[in-house]
Each structure stands twice: as structure tokens, then as C-alpha cells.
Amino acid sequence: NVCDRHDLVEDLTTYLYNASLLKYIEGYVQKVSPQKTPQVVGALLDCEAPDDFVNNLILSVRSLLPVDALVDQVEKRNRLKLLTPFLEHLIREGSQDSHVHDALGKIIIDTNNNPEHFLTTNPYYNSLVVGRYAEKRDPNLACVAYKRGSCDDALIECTNRNSLFKLQARYIVDRGDQPLWDKVLGQENTFRRQLIDQVVSTALPESRNPEQVSVTVKAFMRHELQSELIELLEKIVLNNSAFSSNANLQNLLILTVRTRGGVLTVRSTAVHVHA
Fold it and tell me: Which residues, including other chains, have CB under 8 Å from residue 177's CB and lie 6 or more apart?
């Protein structure tokens, strides 16, 4: 009780474990302070206690313990996989706690157990938390998580840092969000050229969505990317894409080519694309 009151849980656990008083450890977390289980588990891991004992201890408390604190204690000791039975038990019981699903997602990423399936189908994990964890291991997986949660800033930073500009271009075209376009096409974006090149060469030509084409063309026009717009329109109008016979795009290409002084003569609000 004194150790509990003065928050000396780790010291108490270490003493009891070294004295082989395991029943007292079990009694402490089950009857006295189940909310202190994370600190007890951390101390047991430092004492190199057997995994079976630690797992059984956790399972004996189950939903009474704070999952986020437990994950933190185990993760900082690089023993996250230890929690697999506990997390799977909670999920079987119907837990929708994001901390539970975040931790399981991290384990699945670490063990490479079909992580992309988890990241695209699990509705309960926090995209930003799991994405940041995945980024240290596989930036492509991180972007799957970021895309699922529409974490624009995180995905752009990740793809910039890892030179994944084709992935970034596809994401931005798919999002079709004008404020996002304005951000990435702004002069202050040091990776603007790499992004534009991938939009022109890959992301938009492979799109079959009229709205995506319309939003992208408007964004290029708004930022006065005249030569890039001509190249883009040539790709999607002249190269047998799904929009080769689109009269609006054909007219826009002609008018853009005729533009003088670098100022577009066609208002962006006039661009309408139909499949």
C-alpha cells in the first residue's frame, strides 16, 4: 500500500519478482490497482520475466487496465508483439478502442502479416498514429494509412521525404481537393516541379474520372501553369486516353496554345469534363 500510494510500483514489482512472490504481483493488479498494470508489466519485462506469466497477468485484468498506457510501456521496450493474445482477445470481445487496433496494426506491420489488408479494411485504427509508426519501416505502408484517413499533410511530408512523387500525384488527383491543389502548386513548395511532372506523365493520364480531370485542369489554370497545361492536355486529348474525344478539352487545348504573354484566356470556371 505504501509503494502504491507513493507511486513506487516498479520498485515493488521488481522486489516481489526477485523474491519469487508472484502471487502477490497477481493480487496487486487484480485486486488492488488494476490501473497500475502497465507499470507492473514494464517492470516485469525489465526483469526478463517469462512471456507466459506476463501475458496471463494481462489477460487476468483485461478491460480494467488502460490499453494506451500498456502499449506505451511495452512499445518503448520493443516488445509490442507480446500483446498479440491480449489484443486479439479484446477484439474478439468486440472492442472498437482505437488504442487496441493501433497496437494490433503496429504488430501486423512489424511482422509483415499482410499489413496492407489491415490498413485498408480496419475501420477503427488511428490513421495518423499507425501511419507514423509505419513510416519508419515502410513509407509506402504509411501512405496507405494516411490515404485511408485523408491525412493530407502527413502524406505530402512522407512522400516528399522519401521521393515518392508518383504516389503523391496519384493521391492528390484522386482527392480532387482545390485547397490541397493550391498548397502543392504554390511557389513555396520546393517539390512543386517533381509533383507536376508526375501529374502530367502518370497520375492524370491514367485517370478515368471526369471530375478528377476537371479539378486538375482548373488547378493548373489557376496557377498559370501554361506550358504544363498544354503538355497535360496533349497527354489526355491526343494520346488515346478516355477523354480523347472530349470537345471541351480539345477546345481548351487550342485556346491555351493560342495564349499570349503567359496569361490564360479561358476562365477556369468554364471547364467542364464529361466522360
Answer: 152, 215
- Provide the mean pLDDT of the chain: 87
Residue 187, classified by CB atoms within 10 Å of its CB into exposed (0-12), middle (13-18) or buried (19+), is exposed
Using CA atoms, how far apart are residues 249 and 243, in angstroms rounded to an integer? 8
Torsion of CA 139, 145, 149, 151, to 10 degrees: -10
Return the amino acid letter for 84: T
AA letter at 254: I
Q: Is this model's pTM higher than 0.85 or not?
A: no
Q: Is the pLDDT of residue 193 over 90?
A: yes
Q: Is 262 helix (H, G, I), strand (E, B) or coil?
A: coil
Task: Determine the distance from the C-alpha atom of residue 39 to the mean position of all C-alpha atoms in its chain, rounded to a whole number.
Answer: 29
Q: Which residues contact 38 (CB under 8 A, 6 or more apart)?
A: 65, 66, 69, 70, 72, 73
State which amino acid sits at residue 99. Answer: H
What confidence tier does 100 reach under pLDDT thresholds 50, 70, 90?
very high
* DSSP H helices in 62-163: 67-75, 84-92, 98-111, 115-121, 127-135, 139-148, 152-161
Count of CB atoms within 10 A of residue 63's CB? 11
DSSP state of 64: G
**What mean pLDDT do residues 213-232 have?**
86
Helix (H, G, I), strand (E, B) or coil at 123: coil
Residues with Cβ within 8 Å of 227's Cβ and at least 6 positions away in sequence, in order, are none
